[in-house]
Amino acid sequence: MTDAQQLFDYARKQFTEIADDVERHFEQVAGQLREWMPADTPFARQLPVPKRLPPPTTLQIVQRWISRHKGLSAAAIAFLVTGSIGTFIYIRNNGSKRKRRARRSASGARTDVVVIAGAVANPITSGLYLDLERRGFVVYVVANTSEDEQYIRAQSRIDLLPLQLDLVDPCTAQDQVARFRALLERDHHAFDGAEPHRLLMAGLIMVPDTQSMPARIEDISSEEWSDALNAKVLNTIATTQLFMPSIIEHKAKVLLLTPSVTPALRPPMHAIESTTYGALEGFSASMAAELKQDGVSVSQFKLGNIEIPSVTIKQRREGVPQPRLKGTPLRVLHDSVFDALVSQRPSRTFHVGRGSLVYNIIGSWMPPTIIGWMMGAGRKPEVVQNARDEAMQSSQGSLTWERVEQEA
């Protein structure tokens, strides 16, 4: 063995002894520390808690069951879909076929009173008050002129009566409404010896005629603006104010019927119609908020394309081409109005008529440029002055109030 090898073995032996001494020293120190430190100190080493998988959720259980029973799941889903559709159709058919009749007293007399204010000769208005009278209501139609009163009496209905209301003279109008309130407050007898009963105001229905012929803003005179706002907006507001005490006392429903297709799209050449519709919608929203604390509900009917038999017959006789898509039958509007009058909590908004809800969504969410492109922006419609003057002078100009004019 050489001297170098002996030196190397000696160095390795010394290194091993030093390492063993250091390891024994650290073990001794660690043992002393474990004896000195308590077990609940944060420095004490704790064994890790074994992880447990959380229990499966309901969704996971359903997904696992569906994956194991695919055939049965498909059959169950098909059964639910077809059953839901069949149930919806059944309920809808029963709802349309069920008889809707107003309440009567013990003696068989009519007790519910409905007041309708609007264009008397308008097909929507006339069809509405005739239908409500057939369903058993005592219907009072607001007549602002002697011509309106004669038109209502010409219908020859016992419980369809004109209610004179002079909106030009506020004092006279208040006296007329006071006589109407006295009629509701006194006892009535259906026949001699019958039990007395009182009339109950079921609702006030307002059908303002917001239709106007297409015209550019610079072509509309200030007199036309004044007449339109007075006849379509101010008269509606004044009529509602006069009947407000009776509405609050009897908890009557307030219904506002307005066309919604053209105002929702806001096309050019319809400034008067869009302005009056916006004013009436704002008035309805404010009135609903105020009357809510009195327990009175206000509903707005947004009307779309409604097929009116009398208008359809007239158009066929005049050779007007029929649209490809038929409108909603007028009976649907009558049923919706009746349901709103007798419901405890009617909806705030009713969409009746083809296109009412769709065009409302389009007008609220789509950009104006796209709506203008859909309406054919850039084309100048031809406005016939004679037809425009005739429509502004007669309520018959609202025969097509539920359709978007082709000129727009």
TrEMBL record:
UniProt KW keywords: Membrane, Transmembrane, Transmembrane helix
Record-linked SUPFAM superfamilies: NAD(P)-binding Rossmann-fold domains
TM region positions: 72-91
Descriptive protein name: DUF1776-domain-containing protein
Family matches, as Gene3D superfamilies: NAD(P)-binding Rossmann-like Domain
Domain of life: Eukaryota
Keyword Membrane recorded: yes
A Pfam entry, by short name: DUF1776
